[in-house]
Amino acid sequence: MSWSVEDTSELVKQEIVHSVSLCPPGPCALFIVLSVDASFTETRRRSVEEHLDLLSGTVWRHTIVLFTCGDWLGDRTIEQHIEAEGEALRWLVGKCGNRYHVLNNEKRGDVTQVTELLEKVEEMVARNSGCHFEIDRMIIEKVEEKKRSVEERAKQRMMKVENQRKTLRALINEQTQDLSELRIVLLGGRWTGKSSAGNTILGREEFVTKRRTAQCVKRQSEVAGRQVTVVDTPGWWKDWSVDGTPEADKQEIVHSVSLCPPGPCALFIVLRADASFTETERRSLEKHLELLSGTVWRHTIVLFTRGDWLGDRTIEQHIEAEGEALRWLVGKCGNRYHVLNNQKRGDVTQVTELLEKVEEMVAGNSGCHFEINRMIIEKLEVKRRSVEERAKQRMMKVENQRKTLRALFKVSGESPASSEAGYSGLGGRMVSEWMETFQAVSSSSGCGTQTSASAAPS
Ligand SMILES: Nc1nc2c(ncn2[C@@H]2O[C@H](COP(=O)(O)OP(=O)(O)OP(=O)(O)O)[C@@H](O)[C@H]2O)c(=O)[nH]1
Ligand SMILES: [Mg+2]
After folding, report:
1. Domain boundary among 372, 402, 432
2. Rounded Cα gap, residues 105 and 309, in angstroms
3. Are 31 and 109 contained in the same domain?
4. Ligand 1 centroid vs 190 CA: distance in angstroms?
5. Ligand 1 atom nearest to CA at 211
6. pLDDT band at 340 (very low <50, low <70, confident <90, very high)
7. Which family, according to UniProt (predicted)?
8. Which of 201, 202, 209, 308 to mutate to test the pocket of ligand 1 (most atoms within 8 A of CB)?
């Protein structure tokens, strides 16, 4: 893992600190577990250092680097691996007082690897004059207090959501609206799991998850007796301001809502449940959503992915632990949120519950879906058509330009690919001549170009 400590969720950070209080009076040793089948970069080194610092600077006297996947080494020794790997790993081993050990977890029967490891622990404890690691009581107390407060607030939030949902379900029973068709748009940062969530909702592989979604994709399926339409969109870099997002991606985000006429019943803001949510991300998300106008928030639900990462913790605990930025977002979405585990496609209840939440939101909005200002869409469509037209013209221009150049290469009987030297040495003059002739030809034929002869290698 190469995340900085800022990217790690508050819940995980609390668990790291909490871990040392689970073996009172304190651990004799802390193993920093690394796999030998992956490189150890400077970014990973910094990540380990920052996370260990959560336990205070004295922790290093009690640490051992524990390498796993020992079988991966083959005939090589762990020392060869350490020396070959680079400065970052050597720094870590040095920081741990040159204490390390390698395990082959595929070979559980080999007890000597374990007894040797325990001997190394004993040696370290002896070197520490018999002392174990003791974390500052204040750090533990602060974390434990935070955990208690998070649990209390999480319970309250859960109850509030339950009451909110009950009221909305009563509204559904009163209203006689037809919700046999649900239209959903997925929005969010890059790599948050939008496409995976789309697949989970539709119950089959409709969206590609192996690579970035570059354009809006619309798919439909029948889910729990309803016709469900899902529109997947390109994500933005979570730390970037909206100005940093390419114009084409911004256009796709706006375009998405026009793909499910008359408008989406719900827009899901997709976030990872295993990661932090900073103020910078919050600002970025707010600005990206505003591309769709300020009224969008009445139709949004925060959809957390990677529910599998939560383990026994609830999504409410994550929301309460994470901080002000996430609580602001959940509040802005009218306390509507849901968590999915996209690794567990078979669990259909997580999808039916999500669709129920959509129905409740629609009922709360008096049956209305999200409708974007027609002017925004019309302006966008004019822009898109103009971009497409100009892109076609540019492509044709480049093709003609290249054809002319290749014809010139043929006339001279040389091709730039025929000789490396032809480009840098002798051929430099030749290329300049080609460029001059080409410019003369292109300007006379009206096929203008920005390329200047001086830009060619000389
Ligand atoms: N463990 C786990 N992994 C998940 C979950 N959801 C998504 N992933 C993984 O997260 C990665 C990104 O998922 P995508 O669905 O492609 O994310 P995306 O938001 O569509 O990405 P872009 O289109 O690039 O913005 C993939 O490797 C998924 O397998 C989940 O619930 N649990
Ligand atoms: Mg995607």
Report:
1. 372
2. 23
3. yes
4. 9
5. 24
6. very high
7. Belongs to the TRAFAC class TrmE-Era-EngA-EngB-Septin-like GTPase superfamily. AIG1/Toc34/Toc159-like paraseptin GTPase family. IAN subfamily.
8. 209
